[in-house]
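User: Hey, my collaborator sent me this sequence without any context and asked if I could get a structure. I don't really work with proteins. Can you help?
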Amino acid sequence: MSKEERKKARQWAKINLPEFGKLYSIGIVQFKEIKYCRSDVKTITGKPHIDADSLYKQIHKLPELLKDALYLGSSPDDEKHSEIILWLYFSFEINNKPSYFNIMQTKKGEFRIHSISDEKGFDKDKIKNKV
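Assistant: No problem. I've predicted the 3D structure and written it out in structure-token form, which is a compact way to encode the shape of the chain:
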């Protein structure tokens, strides 16, 4: 993983995303829009991924990639996160490698990208309501 690519991704967020986020129209069945914040980019780039550099290079178009991702299912929060009521999971590819969006639905009704996992870091058993 390149620290330089992570730095570029975070710099992009600082310049292009308002501090408290920007709404992107997604228009998928599960939700119509997603809030994408600077803090989301910091969280995403702070987690491991087998092809982190490619992920970081696409950080600016994650809401677009989510539009075409395959919905896998959801799980209620296990009460570890006081502001989260539901987790939604989607699969997509980065450089022909399986990757997974972990989307959180907050008590405020917002949907946000919490993390992006690679195949090794994603536990499909955590999906309680599979499609």
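In plain terms: The chain has a mean pLDDT of 94. You can pass these tokens on to your collaborator as they are.
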